[in-house]
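#onboarding

Welcome to the new folks! Below is a worked example of what a typical request in this channel looks like: someone posts a single protein sequence, and someone else replies with the predicted structure as tokens. Don't worry about understanding the tokens yet, we'll cover that in week two.

Example request:
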Amino acid sequence: MPAIRYNSIHGTRLNPHYRYACFATADDGRSAAGNADESIEMAFENLHWEHLDMTLD
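Example response:
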């Protein structure tokens, strides 16, 4: 299971209500980030999980 971290940010210029972003890091160093959103739950759903499946260069 990747380590998952949530960040509280101060909104974006596009939408100041998008306050949360989610980041995941696998044990082998691969990582994935998600788009900012209004809630932690939506930030988690927007995480780009497919990036954890990419090969390391």
